[in-house]
């Protein structure tokens, strides 16, 4: 069955960095568009970044452009989100999503940015 397992979240000070990872299994990873979403308390889930199946094209939400980088390693069935210059407003649960016909979601990883 399809599984997406996120890791790498945690508590970080403002200005710090984290690298989130998403390990995929149960489907042909190199055919899936991968995305990262976030959901802050009391808010709807929103798109952070997306990367095409080949990795050639990426897109970002305006509020993370220049600070976050999405990438993937198709040989390892992994997707990543490098987050730099973190701000308190980046605090949220971050989810990995695979789109391959249907959308599949991971369980999320908590990111907290606080001094």
Percent in strands: over 45%
Unreliable residue runs: none
The N- and C-terminal alpha carbons lie at a distance of 40 Å
Structural class: mainly beta
The sequence of SSEs as H and E is EEEEEEEEEEE
Total DSSP E strands: 11
Task: Characterize the quaternary organization of these chains.
Answer: single chain
The gross shape turns out to be: globular
Give the averaged pLDDT, no decimals: 97
Rg, alpha carbons: 13 Å
**What is the overall number of helices?**
0
Q: What is the share of helical residues?
A: under 10%
The biggest sheet amounts to: 7 strands, mixed
Describe this entry's structure for a reader.
With 115 residues, this protein is mostly beta strands. It is built from no helices and eleven strands. Strands 2, 4, 5, 6, 9, 10 and 11 form a seven-stranded mixed sheet that branches. The chain has a four-stranded antiparallel sheet with strand order 1-3-8-7, with no helix packed on it. The termini are far apart. The model has no long low-confidence stretch (mean pLDDT 97).
């Amino acid at each position: 069955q399809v599984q997406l397992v996120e890791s790498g979240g945690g508590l970080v000070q403002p200005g710090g960095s984290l690298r989130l990872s998403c390990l995929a299994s149960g489907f042909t990873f190199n055919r899936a568009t991968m995305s990262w979403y976030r959901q802050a308390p009391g808010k709807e889930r929103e798109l952070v970044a997306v990367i095409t199946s080949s990795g050639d094209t990426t897109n970002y939400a305006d509020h993370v452009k220049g600070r976050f980088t999405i990438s993937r390693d198709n040989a390892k069935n992994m997707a990543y989100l490098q987050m730099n210059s973190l701000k308190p407003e980046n605090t949220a649960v971050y989810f990995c999503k695979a789109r391959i016909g249907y959308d599949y979601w991971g369980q999320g990883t908590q990111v907290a940015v606080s001094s």
